[in-house]
Amino acid sequence: MNRKMSRREFLRVGAFGVVTAIQSQYASVRVQRRRQPNLLFIHVDQMFCDAMSAHGCQYIRTPNIDRLVAQGISFRLSYSANPVCCPARSAWYTGRMPSETGVVVNDVPIIEGIPDLGQWFRARGYEAVYVGKWHVPKRPLAKSFTVLPVGHFSGQQGDGAIARAAVNFLLNYHSDKPFFLSVGFLQPHDICYWCFAHQKPIDKIPFPEIADQLPPIENLDFDPREPETFQKKWRRGWRWEQFSQWSEWQWRYYRWSYYRHVEMVDAQVGRILDALEDSGLAENTVVIFSSDHGDGMGAHKLWQKMYFYEEAARVPFIVSWKGHFPEGVIDDEHLVSGVDLAPTLCDLAGIEPPPKCRGRSLKPLLEGKDVLWREFLVCEVDVTGRMVRTPEWKLITYKGDQTDQLFDMRNDKSEMRNLAPESRYGDVVTNLKKLLAEWEAQLEPAPLNLRRR
Amino acid sequence: MAEQAKIIPPEPDDFLPLLLKGFQAPDAPFQPDGEWKSVYRLFLIGVLDAPQYREWRCIPAGALRLSRNPRPDGNFVLQVEFMAHQSLEAHARSFDYIQAEILCADDDASSLLRWRRISMQLTPKGEPIDGTKLEMNGEVTRNGLVFRYAGRERKVKAPLPITCDWAIFDLVQRLSQKLGKQLVRPAEPKLLLEFALLEDLEFLRTNHRIFASEPLNVEVDGKRFRWRRFVQFGDGVLPWAYCLDEQHHLVLAYSGMRAYLYDPTAKSAFPFRRDEGHGARDMGDERVG
Hints:
The structure holds 2 protein chains of 2 kinds. By secondary structure, chain A is of the alpha/beta class. Helix content of chain A is 32%, strand content 15%. In chain A, the strands form 3 sheets. Chain A has an 8-stranded mixed beta sheet with strand order 6-5-7-2-8-9-3-10, with helices on both faces. In chain A, α2 (63-70) packs across α11 and α7 runs parallel beside α11 (248-279). The termini of chain A are far apart. By secondary structure, chain B is mostly beta strands. Chain B contains 2 helices and 15 strands. A 15-stranded mixed beta sheet of chain B has the order 8-7-6-5-4-3-2-1-15-14-13-12-11-10-9. In chain B, a hairpin with a 3-residue loop joins β3 (76-88) and β4. The termini of chain B are far apart. The relative contact order of chain B is 0.19. At the A-B interface, β1, α7, α8 and α11 of A face β1, β2, β3, β4 and β8 of B.
């Protein structure tokens, strides 16, 4: 593991002017008789991995997510299994790739017979509790989890209530059973609605007060050698006639607004972390923080998600367990996927993972063990889109499309130059496609007729 | 049905004509630094987007009731009752409900001094859901904030002054009163106030600033209004706009997907039917001020 900095170093140099410091006086520290840890999975919706100050962004203040990074391990090479809400969540909660769960696009159900984590943990002695956004269609949440009934499709309307419900649960949990609490915040997903509302090109900034605060976008441009499948959807498709006319400052205003959306949920994450500390359960609770997918953020003149550029596909994956795992570690080395969540949680709980999990348990990495780790991971979009990521390369390919994309992720992190058309990279493309074929050969794709609405 | 309001704001303010349909402006005398009660309806605003059309939607999504009671020392007590619809898929039909009683300082920021807050979730019929009630008290000290809840105490360092989202409804009214009729939109943005924000008396957000902005000219049912406008920026919020009438009464506040519109009839939205008085009276005998 690449140990970037100690916790003390991180707190000193990495918190970027955070003004809050937390002190807590516990009424009592609860003693738990059991040995299995509680599992607290906090997930947000549409957050790019590096949209936090702890990862070096100077245009955002996320003191609470930073606190979690300072108390744990943050995997920066973490990718959504499929950067779309429902598919990504189906992968989280089953450990299977979306092409196997059947959820290859939004609003189609997980095929019958694949267990979800609520069912799995509940059957193995855990109190499985859910609050907030679920978005795994046709899989009745209440049959898998005990549900705390709050939340709203707008994070601005519902996330405060979600935090309060989770806080209440933690403060009042007195059972000897370990719990698996999944907290699903909506933010920063409201940025989608923001984009709908702001899509008309305008010729002056609406707020001169923030004119000097708009974050730069170093990869606003893009290599036009993009797959036809992608271009059809994004360069000629949804509202492109509007977005293509945006000026640079309008894209930057969008990114400024996106960062405010992330900050909205940061404070609510902080309340849950406070409550966990105050509950006396922190020492026996593993906290995992992630997002289903990222957001375009204006990179390559894109919004939304559903594609493989870094901003849409790379997501936070932070794990913290006081006294058990290293603290203040930012891992830039190990590739992590959304399908790793299920086997990791099961491994931490000491129970077997659901059948045919495609991910790997991160527990050895969390314990600082030097293990042989995966050389590549695969990410899916819709029926035909696939991304193969190694530490060095990213290949993006759509079945039946003549054009691929290949990026040198060590020397071109901004993905500005597509190397696939250049003949000298032919072997790299061939090898990555071979890895993809091997990966796909082990999957059990859901019947196509079950994938569609 | 009232006519649609005529207004030509820049996007994203295009929702205003729809929101202001049938708007009834306050007409009673109003004293911002005196005793007052105001009720607002909370709307969710957004665009329904489809390939062939776009349509603004303004959906009633809750209510906010505020009352201000000055004390002899100049400080004042702000009582709050807030309710927001919760509706997430089939499993989450409920209301987020908050009562609070806040002692605020008689200063520009309506600074928080101490407060009591009770939050709970309510069923669709307005009944408290078991296990959701949480009482949280707090105060501001020289170093920041102290929260007390469920037998715990938590101290949080924070810059002063600290106010809350509901107290901003008070402070912009007094700010407008203080500015009187003077032009408050200079050629360059002029900072009027800086503070930290304790949203919902719970979520700390720093680096907040309020500026004067362009007035908003509105015509509703043939009546013309020119509302003074302030804008607020800071960590964890999209820009908030606060619109005030000539009596310095806040009539509209909006940010992102949320808008609060002055509407005395919104009090019927609260589940605990009280024509008079305030839900915060049920918070117990202990008072904050």
